[in-house]
Fold these 2 entries.
Entry 1:
Amino acid sequence: MRAHNFCAGPAALPAAVLERAQAELLNWQGAGASVMELSHRSPEFVGIAERAEASLRRLLGIGDDYAVLFQQGGASQQFASVPLNLSRADDTVDQVVTGQWSKKALAEGKRLANVNVASSSESSNFTTIAPQSDWSTTPDAAYLHYCPNETIGGLEFAFVPKSDVPLIADMSSTILSRPIDVDQFGVIYAGAQKNIGPAGLCIVIVRRDLLGRARENIPAMLNWKIAAENDSMYNTPPTFGIYLAGLVFEWLESLGGLDAMYAINKRKAQTLYKVIDDSEFYANPVDPQCRSLMNVPFTLADATLDKVFLEQAEEAQLLNLKGHRSVGGMRASIYNAVEQASVDALCEFMHRFEKDNG
């Protein structure tokens, strides 16, 4: 029996995808070998990668003026790749800081460029986002970087920033949860381990006119132009990750695409937030206008009950609800593969726990 998995990442994968991968694991489509044993140069695996990219392009409406790259190193490697590909050492870049992941991107950016913090939510303990009219951006910045959804704090942008310079988005914990207009962005990157597939893979969607801006001393493995020219196979790519990602993309298409997924995700989030908001026992610290669709942090009125809550939740097969150490409390990550039934089970447990301990 599979438990209800609310892990922030590596996160739940769709059962249908895991079952298909299980069935194909030893002998992929009659090839006589596992997909993990196929050469990345073979026609079979090239076909897998091409189908995965085509499916992702359909889901997000990605035009030919964007390259789609399958990269290694997760999203954290892109914290360095972005400034190395898009700026010179003496350029100014703008960054918006709304949580722990954009703080990490900021720290890496400062090592490689002159960074202007256009806006920061740290004074509110990352519970709200300032309107863009209050930001202090640089007119000739090389780019503007932000994180649309902060996994740890459950803080999400309700708007896409307007920008005259390339807009760069770390969409690791929000990509594929709803439709987006890719044309609003210069670069979108996303670690796979939330809504795409297994950890270790990172998707980079980059407007082609931004390729070729990289610094001369950039490592080849970080150079998006080299990756694009080699169809993400400059080196051996994360083949199993690409294969599983492709299955996830097909699964999303079979559900009706991102419009259908968005409707499902809104229902899940509304169900959980209602339990929190209707209770004096639970609380969510985030400005309601900035609440995340994917990551729902909440606290108990009596923090001494946290350990008991987590122990009893695990006994009820409700896993990975402990909040990040920098925030405390609880956090339920309800990514695409987390079903409504799992959210309902969590809500029922929360009602029972409040009744017994409130």
Entry 2:
Amino acid sequence: MDLRELLEEVKNNKLDIDSALDKLKDFPSEDLGYANIDHHRQIRNGYPEVIYCEGKSDEHILGIIDKMNQKKSNILGTRCRKETYDKIKEIYPDAEYEELSKILKIQNQDIINLGKGKIVVVTGGTSDIPVADEAYYTAQFLGNKVERVYDVGVAGIHRLLNKRDIINSARVIIAVAGMEGALPSVVGGLVDVPVIAVPTSVGYGANFGGLSALLTMLNSCASGISVVNIDNGFGAGYLASMINKLD
């Protein structure tokens, strides 16, 4: 039950004040010792808290999911191990997993499309897809129409130009690239909408684990480009969703 439902039940005399106070004891946050769950984040930001699974034990992830599930929150987990998902699936049969992007999803409420337009996710190469899919599924789970245009990097610029109709239909574009990271600059020069650049760690030695792509994107001569951290598909999907929902 979310706060709005709780207040509606009190208003309609379906729930007494003492019972409502008991339900509110874990608001705005719930301290589990190893995690402090922010149950009010959806009220403040429009989205529930997202679980970053990497570095967390299976026990801690399951504990967080249990508390969020009790609140009927939609649950999104990033960087989730397949072995962890298998354990979650045994307890929560409705859990879904996108293996390439390592995205975990448990949908307890209908996902309402509040986006004003479409988000398009573009990649330089096929090797960038795991990060791009993290952005894709994040934006989709947060209530947006999302389309993918993959493997259209600058090494064969005609591939990108052949997708101009899709790119021009976007309200926000997420451009994901490794190697030298030139794709966002090219895309930024073709469109009149915000471009969110995502550098990936894909590349040979002088790529420095994505640092070269990051610096290229930060130094882009095209206007209207913002840059998130290396391999941060989630951050790009989240930001794109916020932009897409602006009036």
